[in-house]
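Weekly modeling sync, notes
Attendees: S.R. (lead), two postdocs, one rotation student

Agenda item 3: backlog of single-chain predictions. S.R. asked that every request posted to the team notebook include the full sequence so nobody has to chase files. The rotation student volunteered to paste the first one in as an example of the format we agreed on. Action items at the bottom.

Example entry:
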Amino acid sequence: MPKISKETVEAQDYGGVKVHEGEVGEYTVNILSFQETQDMTPMFTGLPEGRCQCPHWGYVLKGRQSWRFADHEEVFEAGDAFYVGPGHIPVFEAGTEMIQFSPTQELKATDEAIRKYMEANA
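Predicted structure, as returned to the notebook:
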């Protein structure tokens, strides 16, 4: 069975967030550590309605995160397993650590929007 861990996948440091990422089947697994609070709003400007359209499943190891939708907000804290559907903007508080599972094909559009934002604001 395919697997990833912090020991088997090299961390990418994006200044404020460290990401261990790998593909398992048709899903991307992210192990994320946020050293700084990250409001993803500006990074999603290139996506429909300025919101991530990819669903995510995950588990919060430490910290707190909120996911803003057009009509409500969901908050997850350490010990919570979660699912968020399309149409969200996440905010991760400093100190948050989590594991996230996302369909790889749907995640590509979000990753591309973030990459473009990072290049334009480097």
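Discussion: group reviewed the output briefly. The longest strand covers residues 17-24.
Action items: rotation student to repeat for the remaining queue; S.R. to check formatting next week.
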